[in-house]
Amino acid sequence: MSWGDFKDVAAERRLFQRRALVMLLLVIAASGLLAGRMYYLQVVMHDTYKTLSDKNRVQVQSVAPPRGLIYDRNNVLLAENRPVFSVTLVPERIDELDRTLERLQSIIDISGEDLERFRRRLTEPRRPFQELPLRYDLTETEIARLAVVRHQMPGVEVSAELVRYYPFSELTSHVLGFVGRINREELQRIDPVNYAGTNYIGKSGIERFYEQALHGEVGYQHVETNARGRVLRVLERENPEPGRDLQLHLDMRLQRLAFKLLDGRRGAIIAVEPDTGGILALASVPGFDANKFVTGISVADYQDLSTSLDKPLFNRALRGQYPPGSTMKPMLAIAALDSGATTRNRTIWDPGYYQINGNGRRYRDWKRTGHGWVDLNNAIAESCDVYFYDVALEMGVDTMQSYLSRFGFGEDAALDVSGALSGLLPSRDWKRAVRNAPWYPGDSVNMGIGQGFMLATPLQLVTATSVIANRGRWHEPHLLREVKGGGEASDLLPRGDHSNINLKDPEDWEYVVNAMEDVMHGAKGTARYAGRGADYRMAGKTGTAQVFSLEEGEEYDADEVRERLRDHAMFVGFAPADDPRIVVSVIVENGGSGSGTAAPVARSLFDAWLSNFGEGGPVKQVTAIGGEG
Questions:
Q1: Helices (H), 296-384
Q2: Every domain of the chain and the residues it spans
Q3: What pTM value is reported for the model?
Q4: Distances in Å between the alpha carbon of 602 and those of 7, 309, 328?
Q5: Catalytic residue among 326, 383, 444, 593
């Protein structure tokens, strides 16, 4: 029997053909479905899936604008931006954050303080996928080490950013202030769109006051990323608008000289251009390195600054509130003349003390033997306390408070100086509210020599002295001189609201200025040694502010008083007297007398400014000529 007897070849062939046909139809159907699906995805849903794909591949990043630069009046750069490389982390792209941090510690130097600061920022409100800095200012070696392993650590980047840098550091720390990283409170009040790419914001000084102008406008860029989120290329970019560059009235030559003249002592110097109100120098000594605050100051460095007895973080020029002492006498003289409390020809007898009544307390004059018969000119030139005790009692607190407020006391009269305090201009209502006591005649007597409750800042003293130098014209102190590259300073400066002081007899201005000239050039002027040898006339007033009170009849002995309890030395003045170009206010804490300590400092500033910093060094320091400032 043959094999053909058992197998029907024709039937099997027909079965195979049927099965092949069915499979072919299935393949065609499947291919049709795939083609249809592909058409649906590639054609019908093209826009949708292209958008979804781009969202995975293309990201929109904000681009921080370069911060505006700050210059002095001679175009010396005071605040610039320099590139700094830092290692940053995006927590949302890191699976095991602790393990990543440990690995980074094995590659570069990361301190415990860096880690603590980073973990604190993790808990603060922030933008999604925002890079958080871990270490700043990487070295080239550290950058190279990170570049080798960078592909193994998603979410870890080496970022370059422009960071604020202050070339003069301590010399400008209290004028410019500084920038720092945006904190939680600031994040709540800033524009989230414009600050989307910005990590720093002005914290104090000019940096804070003109933050909006210095910051600029944010830009954007579309970047292509890989699956790990790393940027491969920039597809499209809208450049940010840089912040505006500012030019200040500040002169770094005068600023440097002010620091040198204080010579490590605690104190403050402010110099103003009377015609404009522009601040030429603002020195608070000691200062601090503002650069340490930009990327985050270390705990140890901050503790050193905050616990120092010299208080380098304290801006004495703006926030130091001192009894103005005898530096108030020119303003009180104007008040006394204009109110009729005294006249130019009126004289009084000074036996060395003053009594409100025959059996009352004796208010001492700085000169124990007294000045004898004195008129108002002598009282200013020789700083006779008794004369001003008498006219203060005659005027009373209401008149004194009214006139002194017109000179800017009791308020922050500056236009763009951030953080200035208003001092204390006492009144009846103030004492009733704060001390729950009436105003006594003795309070007026003390106020007549700038003591008692009266407090003023060096900025207020230079402001009031400028009004005298200008013979009653007001120019509020300010730092901004010009907006570089277009724009007017007036567009950014607040408007002043002080009215000029119009006296009943305008010649009273010249009378008081002449008396202030006698302080510097008169035979008995308290600052006559500081005024010697000048080829120009200067006007000034010395002052001494007591740090602690003396009992009645007790004499002051500087040698027996601990250094930090000694009197503050003060001086206000301007030069030339007939056409003022510079007004200064000087305070040297615990410096003793204003005549021996503060007045020579002012003379050096006058000499330098009026000679345009020509040859001839500062005048030689002299010893005090008496117990008065």
A1: 299-307, 316-319, 329-339, 376-381
A2: 60-248
A3: 0.83
A4: 128, 26, 17
A5: 326
Class at the top of the CATH hierarchy for domain 60-248: alpha beta
Q: What are phi and psi of 145, to 5 degrees?
A: -60, -40
Supply 219's token pair: 């830009």
What is the identity of the amino acid at 192? P
Give the model's pLDDT for residue 58.
65
State pLDDT tens for residues 161-219.
Answer: 888 999 999 999 999 999 998 887 888 888 888 888 788 899 999 999 999 999 999 88
- Taking only the tens place, the pLDDT of each residue in 562-613 is 666 778 899 999 999 999 999 999 999 987 778 889 999 999 999 999 999 8
Say if CB 520 and CB 527 are below 8 A apart: yes
Q: Please, which pLDDT band fits residue 33 given cuts at 50, 70 and 90? A: confident
Structural contact between residues 405 and 425, judged by C-beta atoms closer than 8 angstroms:
yes
E runs forming strands in 206-266: 219-225, 231-238, 246-248
Tell which residue, 571, 597, 596, has the closest CA to residue 584: 571
- What span, in angstroms and rounded, lies between the C-alpha atoms of 453 and 564? 21
The structure tokens listed for 240 are 């940010």
The answer to whether residue 422 is catalytic is no
C-alpha separations of 545 from 326, 446, 587, 594 in Å: 8, 12, 10, 9
**How many other β-carbons are positioned within 10 Å of the β-carbon of residue 203?**
20
Average pLDDT over residues 511-524: 96
